[in-house]
Amino acid sequence: MRSTAWGAYKGITEALRARLASGEFQPGAALPSEAALVAEYGVARNTMRRALDQLAEEGLIVTQPGRGRLVSAPGERSAPNQPQYQRIAADLRKQIASGELAAGALLPSESALVMQYGVSRGTARQALAVLQDVTVSVQGKGRFVKPQ
């Protein structure tokens, strides 16, 4: 499979990409475990992780805690994985740009974002922090959309 230790992950990435394209692994299906892939390809765990990370960056697979690495559905493949806080911030930014959240409007609280998106309070706080350029925080009142 490999010509050099440094290029091994590229060959594995290509092989796994071809297996995904062939339909060997259906969307939503779990890939074989990391240990099984290491044994199959005869490489070190770090080499395999690098190949799997490349596929994740391309949006071909996603990692779900407790479930492993899953094959992305074709519609999901257009955008690489994005941290949850960035998705939340992007959703709020779209609402601000569309006028759904107008100037002076109160943004959802951290608690509301936790409930709506099923994320931790820290993730919600990080999403709101990303929006500092278009929001203003008022102590004890909340975070509001800045007037344009």
Explained architecture:
- By secondary structure, this protein is mostly helical.
- It contains 6 helices and 4 strands; from the N terminus they run αααββαααββ.
- The strands form 2 sheets. Strands 1-2 form a two-stranded antiparallel ribbon. A two-stranded antiparallel sheet has the order 3-4.
- Helix 2 (34-41) packs across helix 3 and helix 4 packs across helix 6 (121-130).
- The longest helix has 15 residues, at 84-98.
- The radius of gyration is 21 Å and the shape is elongated.
Write the layout of secondary structure elements.
Elements: H1 8-21, H2 34-41, H3 45-57, E1 61-64, E2 68-71, H4 84-98, H5 110-117, H6 121-130, E3 135-138, E4 142-145
Helix pairs in contact: 1-3, 2-3, 4-6, 5-6
Keywords:
148 residues, two-stranded antiparallel ribbon, mainly alpha, two-stranded antiparallel sheet
Give a quick precis of the structure:
This protein has helices spanning 8-21, 34-41, 45-57, 84-98, 110-117, 121-130; strands at residues 61-64, 68-71, 135-138, 142-145.
Q: Give the structural class.
A: mainly alpha
Q: How would a textbook summarize the main sheet?
A: 2 strands, antiparallel
Radius of gyration: 21 Å
Number of strands: 4
Strand content: 5-15%
Query: Helical residue percent?
Result: 40-55%
Unreliable stretches covering 5 or more consecutive residues: none
**Shape, per Cα inertia axes:** elongated
Q: What's the tally of helices?
A: 6
Average pLDDT across residues? 85
- C-alpha end-to-end distance: 58 Å
